[in-house]
Design goal:
By secondary structure, the protein is α+β, with helices and mostly antiparallel strands. The protein folds into two domains: 150 residues, no CATH class; 40 residues. The chain has six helices and six strands, in the order βββαβααβααβα. The longest helix is centred in the last third of the chain and has 31 residues. The C terminus is likely disordered.
């Protein structure tokens, strides 16, 4: 009995492409991703805590579509920071500061070896699933019956993508406004950032490089 051929890894990844800051899945549904900051409620007064919770409740109740909140927790890779300190140690001309830098490096190495320092990213995934009539699969065939590679078919697919993106952008605006009212800062991920998020998701052992919120 022959062993069936193994499927390539790509068959198990739902992502089809990342285009113009939008993740397009294999079913042609679209996802925008926001990176959100965190809030430390413990440092706020009781009135401030209640206000934040109330605003967040209003935000959730105002949505007429689903969103996904993803918390990514990873062990922080301290190696780039250590490498930076070692470079500065070598470039230092003052002997005392050079010794102090070396001691600081040893302290950081010892501390991180004994304590797991974690980094957390908070993502808001905003979906949009096009209607069957408006999907990129069927509209080119409905109008004109052109071949898939023809110019008119490509133009039709581009038009559909832009229409669907407009709908998605409206949802993104609603989510951004709602989160800002709660005191949460958000940053829209572009194409490169989304690719990085998915790469780290499927390659968790790779070196961490945190995404910044300006």
């Amino acid at each position: 009995m022959k062993t069936p051929p193994s499927k390539p890894t790509q068959d198990f990844v739902p992502l089809k492409e990342v285009r113009d800051g939008i993740a397009v899945l294999k079913d042609d549904s679209m996802r925008a991703i926001l990176l959100a900051s965190s809030l430390n409620l413990a440092l706020k007064s009781e009135d401030e805590q209640n206000a934040v919770i109330y605003q967040f409740q209003n935000f959730l109740n105002s949505l007429d579509f689903t969103v996904q909140i993803v918390i990514q927790s990873r062990e922080l890779d301290i190696r780039p920071y250590i490498a930076l300190l070692e470079e500065r140690q070598k470039a230092q001309v003052e002997e005392l500061i050079k010794v102090q830098t070396k001691e600081y490096i040893e302290f950081i190495k010892s501390f991180t070896a004994q304590t797991n320092i974690m980094t957390k990213n908070f993502f808001i995934v905003i979906p949009y699933t096009p209607q069957l009539f408006g999907s990129g699969k069927g509209i080119a065939g409905i109008f004109g019956g052109k071949k898939k590679g023809s110019k008119s078919a490509k133009d039709a697919q581009l038009s559909v993508f832009e229409e669907n993106r407009t709908q998605l952008e409206q949802r993104v605006g609603v989510v951004e406004a709602g989160l800002v009212r709660t005191g949460v800062r958000v940053a829209r991920l572009g194409t490169e950032e989304i690719v990085e998020v998915f790469y780290k998701l499927f390659n968790p052992g790779e070196t961490e490089k945190p995404i910044q919120i300006n």
